[in-house]
Amino acid sequence: MIAAKPNNRELKRGRILAAALKLFARKGFEAAALEEVARSARLAKGTLYLYFKDKEDLYAQVVLDVLDRLEAFIAECLLSTQGAVDKLQGVARGHILFFTGNRDYFRLFSSLLTTEAPLVHRRLMSPLLEKRRRLEAFVHELVEEGKREGTIRADLGTPDIAHSFIGMINQSVGRLCWDNELPVDAEQSAAAVMTILLTGVSSR
User: Fold this and answer.
1) SS3 track for 15-64
2) How far apart are CA 162 and CA 47, in angstroms?
């Protein structure tokens, strides 16, 4: 089945989101101006209001669009995986590849990790937290699947395993994205996360 081509409205919206992503990632929410977004998207500023209510709405849609892309990318990474452990490694690999492949995605989310973010971006917080809960629920399901398979220890709490796994992914992504000198090997990094998760770091 041939996918339908995006119409003119969809193309313009995509141009606005792409331009806004670059500006928000490099300047931050406060410093980025809608005039700059419009100029970068090669549109009149008034056109932006046909698609978004204001700068806060545009910012929220940029973040949610990136999260939709992340979910789709991880789903693609999981197509050829089998078993809970392999799927968990696919999730880790997908996150690392997604953010290291486009540092603007990482910069955008780094700006949200502030104490002021929930106050400044109130409209964004609810859907953002919902997407995070969906990721956590998915990881929980994979951990439970691994316990049923016998590939993950059943004596440890699923929430503890899931949160440790997600935390290690976030730290790996942050380390690789902040340090431009580090070579990026998503397979190796994802494998390291899984080794530490499954066997720890003890040599005994």
Assistant:
1) HHHHHHHHHHHHHCCCCCCHHHHHHHHCCCHHHHCCCCCCHHHHHHHHHH
2) 43
Q: Is 1 helix (H, G, I), strand (E, B) or coil?
A: coil
Q: Residues of 57-88 as b/e, b for ≥16 C-beta within 10 angstroms?
A: ebbbbbbebbbeebbeebeebbeebeebbebb
Residue 71 gets which letter from DSSP? H
pTM of the model: 0.85
What pLDDT, in 10s, does the model give residues 140-159?
999 999 999 999 999 999 99
Q: Which of 70, 63, 52 is nearest to 28 (CA)?
A: 63
The residue with tokens 């056109």 is 47
Q: Where are the alpha helices (DSSP H) in 150-185?
A: 158-178
Dist CA 194 CA 165 (whole Å): 8
* Residue 183 buriedness (CB in 10 A; 0-12 / 13-18 / 19+): exposed
Spell out the domains of the chain, with CATH numbers in brackets.
1-52 (1.10.10.60), 57-199 (1.10.357.10)
